[in-house]
Amino acid sequence: MFTKFLVVGSRMDPASMNILTNLSDISEGKFDFYLIDGEMLDTRCLDRDKINKYDYVIFASKHKSEKINKTLSIHAPGNFREVWGGGEEGKLSPASALFQKHLFLTLKKIKDESELNRYSITLEATHHGPLIERPSVFIEIGGSEEEWRDKKASFVVAKVIKKAIETWEENPYHEIAIGIGGPHYCPAFDKLQLDSNIAISHIIPKYISPINEGMIMEAINNTVEEVDFAVLDWKGLGKAEERDEVIRILEKNYIQWKKA
What we know:
CATH superfamily of the largest domain: AF0625-like
Number of helices: 8
CATH topology of the largest domain: Aminopeptidase
Number of strands: 12
Number of domains: 2
Structural class: alpha/beta
CATH class of the largest domain: Alpha Beta
Strand order of the largest sheet: 2-1-3-8-4-7
Largest sheet: 6 strands, mixed
C-alpha cells in the first residue's frame, strides 16, 4: 500500500528539529525529508505538489498541553469543528488505521526498550491541521521546552519512525475501526490499539459534542482502509441521549458498532 514515505519537520519546532537531526544520522534512504520554515499545522506552509508525490506523510512535532503532560503521542490530523492550528473546519486528512497501529506498536516497543520511563505513550483524538490529500500521521513529543529538547526522547522517536517504515507490511487480518467518544488522550483506544486485533484510524472526542452524522461520515470516508465498525468509548460519550444519537446515526448508515 505505502512504499514512498515523507517525513516532515519544521525549523520553528525544537522537537521536530531534534527528531529530524537524529533521523538524518541514522537514515539509510528508506524515506525522504521535508524541512519547512513555517508551521506544519498550517496547510499554506506546505508544498502540496511535493507532498503529493509520496504515499504516506509523517509529521514529527512537539505537543503542547495545558497540563504539560510528558508524552510520546500519535494522532491523525483534521478539524471536526472550529479550526485549531490550521486546516479547514469539518474536514479531515486521510488516515491509515493499519499504519497508525503499526507505528503505535513500534513506539511502545522501542520506548520500553529505551527505558524512557518519564514519558507515557498515548493516542490522541484527531485534531488540528494541516489538511492534505495524502494519508498522514503526527508523532509528537509532549511536555515543555525541556521535553521538546530532550535528546534521548527525540532519538527514540527518530528510531520509531525509521523502524516503522522499514518494517511496514500491510496486515489484511486486522479489523478496521474509527473511535468515537472519550477525552483528548485516549486510554480506552490505546488498549485496543496495543492489545487487540483492532486498528483505529480517526478518533472523534467527546469534547466536540454534539457529535453529528457529518463528523462520523467524514472519519469513515477519510480512513483509507474499508471501515468494519465504530468503537464507542461508552462512558466517554456522556449522557444516554448522546450515546443513543450516535448509535442512531451509525445504524441509519448501516455501520456496525462495538463498545470499547
